[in-house]
Amino acid sequence: MLVFAHRGLHHEYLENSFEAIVAALASGCQALEVDLQLTRDHKIILMHDFELKRLYGVERFVADLTFAEIQCLDNQVGKLGRLICLEELLCLVPANVLLNLELKTMQWYKTKILVNGVFNALNNMKRNVIISSFNPYLLMRYRKLDAQCCIAPIFGANLYCFKLIVRLTGIKPSSIHFSEKIMNQSLLVQMHKGGLKIYVYTVNDQQRYAELAQMGVDGVFSDNPQLFEDN
Questions:
Q1: Given this model, what pLDDT does residue 44 score?
Q2: CA 20 to 30 Å from 24, out of 30, 115, 219, 227?
Q3: Is residue 30 very low, low, confident or very high in pLDDT (cuts 50, 70, 90)?
């Protein structure tokens, strides 16, 4: 079963940072998950939260500051970690490593800028990539640019909502990312019958990992993938 290093290896390093990515690669991880969003100057950076308060102690949004301004902030979690952009990530990660790029935006009018920026950065690269998001509109826009890419909507609940969104947007997913809280055998069988791979987030418990492996899920996202090295 495939294990994604969720935001890199961030027990010792800042999540989504250069150091967390390097540590994941050094440990032998063959799949990485990172979050992408836009700064004020339209730089695509690796950052999960829309707000900077949790990591940097600043009550501002990522979209309010430039890439350079965020780089100057001191993180408040006591971990080493340098903020990087998408271009640096693509130079850093070998092409054979599966990259899950989760697209995020809270500004609907910048959807096109984010999607086009990611597409242009990846264009003509022979790279193993999944484009994922909780936001179906981002995935719909990306599908219009790339008919062949692997696209994955993310869902925490409500299977009916999932079916409706997939049907209305025409995103033609290759995989679905479900919360481990709702993952069960019948859901897995239903999705596999439709030819979809199922990746489950966020799994940090060996017992739950074993249960999901027995079910037959295709992969999991974990904050500590090293827990499952011997499995």
A1: 98
A2: 115
A3: very high
Using CA atoms, how far apart are residues 18 and 47, in angstroms rounded to an integer? 12
CA dist 215 → 27, 54, 122, 178, 220 (Å)? 27, 35, 34, 14, 12
How far is the C-alpha of 62 from the C-alpha of 41, rounded, in Å?
10
Residue 139, both tokens: 């995935």
Q: Report whether pLDDT(220) > 90.
A: yes
pLDDT computed for residue 104 by the predictor = 98
Q: Judge whether residue 160 has pLDDT over 80.
A: no
- Residues 166, 153 contacting (CB under 8 angstroms): yes
Query: Given a cut of 70, is residue 158 above it in pLDDT?
Result: no
Residue matched to tokens 């074993």: 210
Alpha helices, DSSP H, located in 18-66: 18-26, 53-56
CA nearest to 183, candidates 135, 136, 152, 216: 216
| Average pLDDT of span 50-63 | 97
132, 102 in Cβ contact below 8 A? yes
Strands, E assignment, the chain: 2-6, 31-38, 44-46, 98-103, 129-133, 150-155, 175-179, 197-201, 219-222
Please say whether the beta carbons of 56 and 75 come within 8 A. yes
Q: Is 178 within 8 Å of 198 (Cβ atoms)?
A: yes
